[in-house]
């Protein structure tokens, strides 16, 4: 549903980080619901009494998944990996990106969509380098995006030559 409602790119060719965050949150909640559903036993109370506790194995699994989900939420959700093509007997010294461009192993580059990518043995790792201003007076100021520098500037609406103070940025 998000795929059809929200655009993949905003401001021309900038990755829509809001869409990526919402997709990640949906996947995270789906995982937690699947784990809860797998551990649910409607007959557990009947079999072992009203005051019994769940098995320690399921507690450990659920606890581990909760820690994992929390850790992923705190991490930068604007990164992704393009796995390397594994061909038996072939040890490649380069990576091929989604546009078909080959990059040497251990190299780094900036994409036209404001991502920093690196070629590693397991594939291409890319993360957005855009920081978005959120702590500013939206009634007096607006943000403008510079595609060349992959950065926002916050300026006054009445006088775009004057910058506005920004107290918080998010990545």
From TrEMBL:
It is found in: Secreted. It comes from Galeopterus variegatus (Malayan flying lemur). Pfam families: PSP94. Its main location: secreted. InterPro entries: PSP94. Keywords: Disulfide bond, Secreted, Signal. Belongs to the beta-microseminoprotein family. This is Beta-microseminoprotein.
């Amino acid at each position: 549903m998000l795929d059809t409602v929200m655009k993949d790119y905003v401001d021309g060719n900038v990755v829509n980080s809001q869409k990526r965050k919402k997709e990640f949150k949906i996947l995270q909640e789906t995982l937690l619901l699947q784990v809860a559903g797998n551990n649910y036993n409607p007959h557990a109370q009947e079999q072992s009494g009203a005051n019994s506790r769940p098995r320690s194995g399921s507690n450990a699994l659920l606890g581990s998944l909760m820690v994992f989900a929390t850790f992923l939420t705190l991490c930068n959700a604007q990164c992704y990996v393009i796995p390397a093509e594994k061909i038996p007997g072939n040890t490649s010294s380069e990576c091929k990106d989604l546009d078909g461009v080959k990059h040497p192993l251990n190299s780094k580059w900036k994409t036209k969509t404001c991502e920093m990518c690196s070629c590693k043995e397991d594939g291409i790792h890319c993360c957005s380098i855009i920081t978005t201003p959120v702590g500013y007076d939206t009634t007096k100021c607006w943000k403008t995006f510079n595609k060349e520098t992959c950065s926002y500037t916050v300026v006054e609406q009445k006088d775009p030559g004057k910058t506005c103070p920004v107290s918080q940025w998010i990545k």
